[in-house]
Amino acid sequence: MTVGLPHYLVLAAMLFAAGIITVLTRRHAIGILMGIELMLNAANLNLVAFNRFSAVGKLDGQVFALFVIVIAAAEAAVALAIFLNFYNNFATVDVDQGNELKG
Amino acid sequence: MAAALFYIFAAITLVGAIGVVMAKHIVHAAVQLLVALLGMAGLYFLLDAEFLAAAQLVIYVGGTLVLIIFGVMLTSHLGTRLMRVGPGETAIAVLTGLGLLAAIVTAIIHTRFPTPPPSVEPDVTRRLGVSLLGDYLVPFEIASVLMLAVMIGAAYLARRRPKDAA
């Protein structure tokens, strides 16, 4: 059986579901960031697979995926800076403790 | 051969992803994320995206993941306290994730995708470079400005303030 586009799409869906569950079940801020990275990777896999199987002769999907990787790195850098700041102020990275603005 | 490699890399990626979900300790989750990202790089190779696979290894595995592990080390004298939501919320989260998965898989099964003959594309990396400096020049430049803003912003946010500021 040859491996086609649906195989990659199902795999990406599984990765995305794993990312969603990670984000929803963790209270550790960096754990949530890991879930987001998983979801971004799932989207990237979709982009590259579609580029490979249904856009013959074009590379737009790969360029998009490259931008996603770059922006994910930028997002991780800013998120970790915010977490360090949060840690300095609250001495924890539990996102449930960051409820200063709660009315 | 390609099919066997796909299943191997897919298994590596899924094991890593499930490990991220299940890991008790945040450092273990980071290691599992490393496994998942390595599997993704293999899948990019299989999809004829060599440059992207290399970029995945260099930027994600070499950059983002190191950053995440640094973040874990700088913010954890907390020991191994389990930071997860309660059982009820966990059940809702798992149901949400599995429901979404079922919906997407159903959509994929019922969609008829066009199947052009898969062609081996020569010199992907050169064409990627040409399109980055051609059709995608403006997004490319915006990305570089974004990187500058991120560099300054991250350094500003993470700096150590004098204590009397509070």
Annotate the secondary structure layout:
The complex is a heterodimer of chains A (103) and B (166).
Chain A: H1 5-25, H2 29-54, H3 60-90
Helix pairs in contact in A: 1-2, 2-3
Chain B: H1 2-22, H2 26-46, H3 50-74, H4 87-109, H5 124-132, H6 137-158
Helix pairs in contact in B: 1-2, 2-3
Task: Walk me through this protein's architecture.
The complex is a heterodimer of chains A (103) and B (166). With 103 residues, chain A is mostly helical. Chain A contains three helices and no strands. In chain A, helix 1 (5-25) runs antiparallel to helix 2 (29-54) and helix 2 runs antiparallel to helix 3. The longest helix of chain A has 31 residues, at 60-90. Chain B is mainly α. Chain B contains six helices and no strands. Chains A and B meet through helix 1, helix 2 and helix 3 of A and helix 1, helix 2, helix 3, helix 4 and helix 5 of B.
Helix run count of chain B:
6
Number of domains of chain B: 2
Taken from the alpha-carbon principal axes, the silhouette of chain A is elongated
CATH topology of chain A: Helix Hairpins
Query: According to CATH, what is the class of chain A?
Result: Mainly Alpha
State the CATH class of the largest domain in chain B.
Mainly Alpha
How many whole angstroms does the radius of gyration of chain A measure? 17 Å
Question: Kindly state the mean pLDDT of chain A as a whole number?
Answer: 90
Which H/E pattern describes the elements of chain B?
Answer: HHHHHH
* Unreliable stretches of chain B: none
DSSP strand content of chain B = under 5%
What string, H for helix and E for strand, traces the elements of chain A in order?
A: HHH
The main sheet of chain B comes to: none
Question: Which percent bin holds the helix content of chain B?
Answer: over 70%
How many domains is the backbone of chain A divided into? 1
Structural class of chain B: mainly alpha
The CATH H-level superfamily of the largest domain in chain B is NADH-ubiquinone/plastoquinone oxidoreductase chain 6, subunit NuoJ
